[in-house]
Structures are given as C-alpha cells and as structure tokens.
Amino acid sequence: MSAHKNALTIAYISFDVVPAPKGAAIHIQAFTQVLAQHFGTVQLVTVSPTMFVTTPPLGPGIDHTVLPAVGKTLIDRVLSFRQALWDWLQGRFFDIIHIRSPFEGFPIALHKPQFCRYLIFEVNGLPSIELKYRYPRVADDRELMHKLTTQEARCLAAADCVLTPSPISRVYLQERGVEGDRLQVIPNGVALEVFTYAAPRIAPVLAPLKLLYFGTLAAWQGVELAIDALHLYRRDFAAHLSIVGPSRPSQLKVLNNLANKLDIAEHVEIYAALPPRDLVAQMHQADVVVAPLTACDRNLVQGCCPLKVLEGMATGTPVITTDIPAVQAIGLPDYHFLAVKPNSSKAIKDALLRLRVDPALRRALSQRARDQVERQFAWGIAQQQLIEVYEGLWAQG
Length: 397
Hints:
Blueprint: E1 10-13, H1 23-39, E2 42-48, E3 53-54, E4 62-68, H2 74-89, E5 94-99, H3 102-110, H4 112-115, E6 116-122, H5 127-134, H6 142-158, E7 161-164, H7 167-175, E8 183-185, E9 209-214, H8 223-233, E10 239-244, H9 249-261, E11 268-271, H10 276-285, E12 288-291, H11 297-302, H12 307-315, E13 319-322, H13 325-328, E14 338-340, H14 345-357, H15 359-376, H16 379-395
C-alpha cells in the first residue's frame, strides 16, 4: 500500500451482509471499490451470520473480513458482532474509519483515539427511526430507545464528518445537533452499465399492464399500497404485479393475505431477489415500476434517497412513486416520474390509468428519467464526491 501515491489506511466497517441484493450492500461495494482504487487497500469489515472467515476480495485492493453476528435476537447479534469487532481492532490503527450505524460504530466512537485519526459516520438510516418497522414492540421499549438514541448521538458527536444521502436527512441530522460544516450530502448512485436503458412499450393502450415492485418488503416501502392499487385498476382493466426482493416469512404472509382478501392472488407473483442483470431484464419487460413510499417518519422526517426510484428511472421504465420531499430531491413530478399523493392506492391507480392511454407521456418520462440519472446520480459522481470528502478531511492535517 505504501507505493500508492494517495495511500491512506482505511477501514470501512458495517453491520451489513456484503455482497447481498439490498441497497446497502450495493452502496458499500461502490464506495469501497473507489476508495481502494484511489487510496490503496481498504479493510472492509461486514457481517457473517455464522462464523469468522476471511472472504475473497470484492475488488482489487478490498481486504474483506466477515465477523460473526449470531444470536436469537437483534441485540444478541449486535453484541456478538461488537465483541468480534473489538478483538479484530486490537493492535490496529487507521488514518480513517468509516462506519454506517451505531451497531458497529459505538465502541469505535467511545475509543476513537485508540483506533483512528478521523472518523466518518455515513448515516443512511438510524435504528431509533427504522427498527420499529421491523420490530414493532421496540417503539414501546423506552429503555432500548433511549440506549439507541444515546449511542447514535455519541457516534454523531465523535464523527469528524457525517455523510448522508438526502437533503431531507441533512436537515434531520442538523436537528439532532450535527453542525453544518461536518455534514455532507452524497446521494445514492446507479451503475449505469448494469441498469441499462430500454424505451417503454409504444402500444397506444397497454393491456394487460405489467407492474413491477423490487426491493425489500419493509413497511415503509408501501408494497401493500401497490397490491391495493392493482385491485382498483383491475376493476376496469387487466394488469399483473410482480414483486421481486428479499423477504421474511411474516412479510410474505401479510402480502399474500392481502392479495387473497382482494381476490387478486393469481395476478400477484412474489419472487426472491434476483441478480442485478436479471432484475434489469424484468424491469425492461415491465410497463411501470411502482415505488409507493409511505408517509412515515422514516421517509418524511429522517429522509432517504430511494435507490429503487433511481434504478427504475435509469432503465427507462416509467416510475410511479410518492410525492414527498425525499423523492422531490431526486427529480420533478410529472417530468421524471409520476409522484402521487402519499398512502393513496387510488392515486396510484389514477397514475396507472394515465400511463395506460398516453404513450407520449411514457416516452417522455422514460427519456427524461434516464437523462436525469446520467447527469446527477451515476455512481461515478457519488464516488468522486466521496474521494473529495476523504481528501478534504485528510488535508486538515
């Protein structure tokens, strides 16, 4: 590494499984790849659900270590990972450590001088906001919520730089006490060579309409709204919804029960996550990508930079999403995508009807969306911004 002209010792540590089909894993790979290219070897530390092993590199210069996160509960898994991480950190010191959550970041924040010169905290989502959507009882556990917010605050205070993907998230973090000069917005990106463009179907009337939702089935994603919108649309016209992404049995049960209740189960298909190129093929076969983000604190207060909306835009398939500030930050409603009233399956249905009869609108949305992603949301743009953050931090001396 010493031969690299910009050499820094960097550890990128995340309580995530990598590689994986989730947006977090895609983001981590994009960032660690460019850090390795520019600065030399990056020590990437992520989760293994079973045992301590060292995996083959994810790219040149990425030294990838996975640590155990085992146990019956999330807290058990976090503590398991933290202990393994603590052991791994002993005797190591880095120019920069990059963290993504308090799960891995809290012990580092407490002992920052022991482990690194600079600490970067990349906030894509905070457990105090997001955990209750997976574990509903968390919201009523005041002691646990206090511990989460306290650990988040410690990480935010210790960080020399806080990265976040949305201007909405920036405002929220400022309200949490992070000074503006430590905050940097770097939006999510799209791998344009993978999410290739194809023009939408040009038939004047789309029948049957092919809808696609892809991504996680977390409650804030609004997948149930998409199913209900399909039900409303099918009162008058034929349509089919494909749902693609990682899922838990409890999530599948909810979606299947809803489809059965609405008597449209035969028109809803749910698939496991697909490799990116296979997913793109599905997107090109679809008439509409639906991303009906709900109006909840995760999307409205904390904010997000919805990768599924950007990836849908990149492929040229018209996107129907939700008219909320986090979506407005990446494009213009009725220009780059159709953005509808939050939490309204009827509004989604009405947008589907617009696309059904208006091929000119479909073509215009398709072309403008791809152009928007190429100009502002290619991974190369985000990666260059990340390099500038690292260089600016190191230049402080």
